[in-house]
Specification:
Structural class: alpha/beta
Number of strands: 5
Number of helices: 7
Strand order of the largest sheet: 3-2-1-4-5
Strand content: 15-25%
CATH superfamily of the largest domain: ATPase, nucleotide binding domain
CATH architecture of the largest domain: 2-Layer Sandwich
Oligomer: single chain
Distance between the termini: 49 Å
Radius of gyration: 26 Å
Largest sheet: 5 strands, mixed
CATH class of the largest domain: Alpha Beta
Shape: elongated
Mean pLDDT: 94
Length: 208
């Protein structure tokens, strides 16, 4: 008899449910959200689990990769499809979600999601980090402009390379502004340096 397992992934512990070919729940447990823990659980289970389903997500990608590397037939399920399929539940719990995922897997009522490769995840991480630093850099610059505007000091149009010199020129002789804006300029410089470093890495990938 074939068996199917559904896993509802959480940060610390994931709910796992195993059902048989007719939909009867065979086992329900909480397992640490680590590939080794899940692999060990299915090895000790002693049942021929045909397929393991996880709802797609950042942590699920990592767990999925570990299960596949261990020789398990694991599949990532499209999040919106799972949500729609389980929306009839009046009370939602991790345990019930795992049970629902297992049943969807058994009946074939799911859409598989492509599992990202390691190079793809590396690129996405680089782009996400670069975008975050770029946004924070802009936030600091706009905040500096806003603070100075309250004192009637207008920065005007200035290139990024000339930004710091222009700000120091405007705040010269004002002790409080020199202290506050000086700290913000130091933070801006750190953000700029790290953003530039990630931007160069992105350009290397673009060139390749």
């Amino acid at each position: 008899m074939d068996y199917y397992a559904g896993i509802d992934v959480s940060l610390k512990e994931s709910s796992a449910c195993v059902v048989d070919a007719v939909g009867k729940v065979v086992r329900e447990v909480k397992v640490a959200s680590e590939p080794e823990a899940l692999i060990g659980y299915f090895e000790e289970l002693g049942l021929p689990v045909s397929r393991i389903g996880l709802e797609a997500g950042p942590l699920s990608q990592w767990l999925h990769a570990g299960l596949v590397a261990a020789g398990r037939d694991a599949v990532l399920l499209e999040t919106r499809h799972v949500k729609a399929a389980l929306s009839a539940m009046t009370v939602k719990t991790d345990r019930k979600d795992a049970r629902g995922i297992a049943q969807l897997l058994r009946m074939g009522w799911y859409r598989p999601v492509h599992a990202k490769s390691a190079p793809c995840k590396d690129t996405r991480a680089l782009l996400a980090g670069r975008k975050l630093l770029q946004g924070k850099l802009l936030d600091v610059e706009l905040s500096i402009r806003g603070i100075l505007r309250g004192y009637g000091l207008k920065v005007g149009e200035v290139s990024r390379g000339r930004f710091e010199a222009r700000i120091r020129e405007l705040t010269a002789g004002h002790a409080i502004l020199e202290t506050v804006i000086g700290a913000m300029l130091a933070a801006r410089m750190a953000l700029w340096n790290e953003f530039t470093r990630l931007h160069r890495e992105m350009l290397k990938i673009a060139r390749r």
